[in-house]
Amino acid sequence: ATDIAGNITESSIRTLKVDTITPVINISIKGVSGINGWYVSKVEVTSTAYDGNSGVSSLDFVVDAGVWEKYTSPLGFTDGVHTVKFRVTDYAGNVTETLSKEIKVDTYTPFVSLKIDGTSGFNGWFVSPVTIEPIVNDSVSGVASVQVAVDDGGWAVVNNSIPFGEGLHTYQFKVVDGA
Q: What are φ and ψ of residue 171, in 5° steps?
């Protein structure tokens, strides 16, 4: 700036920093996929963040109903239903937060036992009609279906006891959980 008398004032060079773009978060999930969104192995979740302007200041995560923590290494998840969120902040103060990601893990096979009702005879034979009832449980993802194959037939869904009459029979049960 110059006044009428010819005096000159010059400002020093200053830097103006502008960053209006929020950082980017990438999430990677590794595990063996089952069905219905379940994983049937341990799960590893990794995250990376990028900011092309001011740079990444922090990358944080929260699991289930916990508190935000600094992310430093992959997160491991075992059996159960979990939620995870990530939050990245750049040096300008812009924040990006992911939606909650549900991680469902079930590494256990369903439990099955058989309740056999009938009158026992000798040498493994029954001397009355027999019913077999499958007793099943899956405490993680739940039981999706119970099936039976009788006398080399195909698989059929079971909802109650299976009756057996006269003769020599073979049977096999299959329990499928929600994962």
A: -150, 155
d(CA 150, CA 168): 11
Q: How far apart are CA 24 and CA 97, in angstroms?
A: 9
Each residue's pLDDT tens digit, 58-83: 999 999 999 999 999 999 999 999 99
Other C-beta atoms lying within 10 Å of the C-beta of residue 79: 16
DSSP letter for each residue of 96-147: EEPPPEEEEE--SPPEEEEEEES-B-STT-BSS-EEEEEEEE-SSS-EEEEE
Q: Within a 13 Å sphere around the CA of 176, how many CA atoms are in the beta-carbon half?
A: 14
**Partners of 87 in the beta sheet?**
60, 97
pLDDT digits (tens, 9 = 90+) for 27-47: 999 999 999 999 999 999 999
Q: 77 forms bridges with which residues in the sheet? A: 43
